[in-house]
Design a protein that fits this description.
two-stranded antiparallel sheet, elongated, alpha+beta, 224 residues
């Protein structure tokens, strides 16, 4: 069986992230709103996406550090529930995610008031992520090589190419789907991967599912 070859191969990269401590903290709902509104998007990313990278063997929850602190620091379970309900990975841009967070926080402030101020040592620490990626030895020119490379790629590669890819152009599209459609013309397989719900998979589970979809497509092609 001769498979279509890409003009440009898929290069699997690994994601490396350093989390930096900053001087920015919040001791109250007012200060949390100020931080979410004014700090760079790298802060928003840190507190809404790092949990995904950390959960390669467990289904990730909850969706944001803000929700955790609202419950444990501010002792406000209603606000925590509202923040947890924001589907962080559904946003194509961090700007839009920031706006949704602010909408929930400001609405709660208006309806419930400022709430408590936490004692020293229990403030919300705004952390900043420094992200960079490195090429791995794995590269794919066709669908068979893609399935093989994906099976060997690290969880950090999955995180980079599935979750982080959605936050850069073309927005909302993971790297796998974009390459499969653009280079191999695999529109149906591309759509199946795009529709996968990351909340219902671990990173390892997500990898196995995509490999299985690719192998099923290879089986179809072998009988074409």
């Amino acid at each position: 069986m001769t498979l279509p070859r890409a003009k440009t191969p898929f290069q699997f990269h690994a994601r490396l992230t350093l989390t930096a401590i900053t001087q920015h903290k919040a001791a109250s709902l007012d200060e949390l709103i100020k931080g979410v509104r004014t700090l760079p998007e790298s802060f928003i990313y840190t507190h809404t996406h790092n949990f995904l990278r950390q959960h390669q063997h467990l289904v990730p929850e909850p969706p944001s550090d803000f929700a955790v602190w609202a419950k444990q620091g501010l002792q406000d379970p209603e606000l925590a529930e509202s923040l947890a309900a924001i589907d962080t990975v559904s946003y194509a841009e961090l700007k839009e995610l920031r706006e949704s967070l602010l909408k929930v926080l400001e609405k709660h402030l208006k309806s419930r008031g400022p709430g408590r101020t936490v004692p020293a040592g229990q403030e919300f620490p705004f952390l900043r992520s420094i992200r960079f990626s490195l090429p791995t030895p794995y590269m794919a020119w066709d669908l068979a090589e893609f399935a093989e490379g994906l099976g060997k790629a690290s969880p950090s590669s999955l995180y980079l190419h599935i979750f982080e890819a959605r936050l850069r152009p073309p927005l909302g599209v993971n790297d796998f789907s974009a390459w499969l459609e653009r280079e191999l013309g695999e529109k149906a397989l591309s759509r199946k991967i795009s529709r996968l719900d990351p909340y219902s998979h671990t990173l390892d589970g997500l990898r196995r599912t995509i490999v299985r979809l690719a192998e099923q497509r290879l089986e179809e092609l072998s009988h074409a």
